[in-house]
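// run 5 | inverse folding | seed 20
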């Protein structure tokens, strides 16, 4: 028997190492596969799309916001991985009321990811792999950015929504030399029209291809709002897990491009 606290500080008690896992967090699904837990993963969401070949054969339990609770209960998991932002509290409460154990993650920074990822790995006896990943992240963080720019990052359009400061994406960009030009009171994903963004005078606007599939056509529409407008990789920007070192490399390099 062993105990662990999740990211919300809730105590979880395990009689043994979990052997049946349902993941409701796409980025952490990727991490679980990376840890070598393919045989233990018995359920994932429709949005858990990587690693593509391995997730193809795992039962899908619908989306992150509308999981099929009955199906999840029927899968008899001894651990569910959830996220405070991505999953609804009422779904988490209902699954816990059914007697299921849920680790709720809450990752709003690279530093928090460096706490959560080893903790999750430790549940399954995979601490050595997690330590390798953390060392790789720390090596990237040690490479200080050579540029500092005021950046606005879109996350959706119709309406236009933007990455606020209290988010994982904003923190990752900050590690790479970006200062989010949106003010904290605007919220985590504030709605701002293009004229409001122009008034903030960002040096650069980023248009990730996920969750909204921004393309060059969108970038062309925004010409004139900033000195540079870049289409970029949305998964690298918002998914925490084994891709963090590459994300830091990629966005540090992007922000250094004139």
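// decoded
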């Amino acid at each position: 028997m062993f105990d662990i606290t999740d990211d919300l500080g809730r105590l979880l008690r395990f009689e043994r190492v979990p052997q049946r896992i349902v993941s409701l967090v796409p980025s952490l699904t990727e991490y679980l596969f990376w840890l070598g837990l393919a045989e233990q993963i018995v359920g994932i969401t429709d949005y858990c799309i990587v690693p593509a070949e391995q997730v193809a054969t795992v039962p899908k339990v619908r989306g992150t916001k509308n999981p099929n609770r009955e199906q999840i209960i029927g899968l008899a998991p001894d651990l569910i991985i959830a996220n405070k932002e991505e999953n609804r509290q009422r779904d988490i409460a209902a699954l816990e009321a059914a007697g299921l154990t849920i680790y709720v993650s809450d990752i709003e920074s690279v530093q928090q990811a460096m706490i959560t990822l080893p903790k999750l790995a430790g549940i399954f006896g995979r601490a050595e792999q997690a330590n390798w990943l953390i060392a790789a992240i720390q090596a990237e963080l040690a490479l200080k950015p050579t540029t500092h720019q005021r950046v606005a990052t879109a996350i959706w359009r119709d309406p236009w929504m933007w990455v606020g400061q209290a988010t994982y994406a904003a923190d990752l960009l900050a590690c790479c030399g970006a200062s989010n030009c949106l003010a904290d009171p605007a919220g985590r994903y504030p709605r701002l029209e293009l004229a409001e963004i122009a008034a903030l005078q960002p040096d650069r606007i980023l248009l990730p291809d996920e969750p909204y599939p921004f393309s060059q056509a969108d970038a062309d529409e925004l010409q004139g709002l900033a000195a540079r407008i870049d289409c970029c990789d949305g998964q690298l920007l918002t998914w925490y897990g084994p891709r963090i070192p590459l994300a830091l490399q990629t966005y540090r390099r992007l922000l250094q491009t004139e």
